[in-house]
Amino acid sequence: MRYAQGGGLTDAGRAARERLRLQAVERFEGGQKNGEIAAGLRVSERSVERWRRAWRERGEAGVLSKGSPGRPRLSDKQIARLERELERGPLVHGWADQRWTLARVKTLVGRLFRVSYTVEGTWRLLKRHGWSWQQPARRAIERDDAAVELWKKETWPLVRAPRRPSAPGSSSRTRPGSR
Q1: Which residues constitute the domain of residue 106?
Q2: Is residue 144 in some structural domain?
Q3: Angle, nearest 10°, between helix axes 45-58 and 11-29?
Q4: Which is one Pfam family of this protein (predicted)?
């Protein structure tokens, strides 16, 4: 694990790393070698090499912190497009059945906008914009509800097994309860 708490740097940690990089820039300008800078700042030589390359390419701005990456956000225009694509249905996007799962919506967002959400983040995105979780009713196309009701009322009472009368029993397999 890269960081002890399992996440990225805090704002204070990021500011401290930025101060280190700026000190390295001063030493670059002073003509020091990467090994000397790494030893003096107590960082790896690879980090100093990376910082020097960024400094050469973009100057001091190249070594400044870019800030917290934050969570992915979709613009209002992207949300409107996502809604249109969801309304078109999963079949249009390559899924055979007519169900949108969170994993499928997550994949669609990635394909459309090159943004990676977690499944939980996808659920929050959908909920935040008024979409709800729905379970499609699974029914046969040929189903006749009137015939089903008629069967329940007329046929089922005739074929249903009668209930046994309740009597004291025993939890023992070898000794049945007395009747």
Answers
A1: 76-128
A2: no
A3: 70
A4: HTH_23
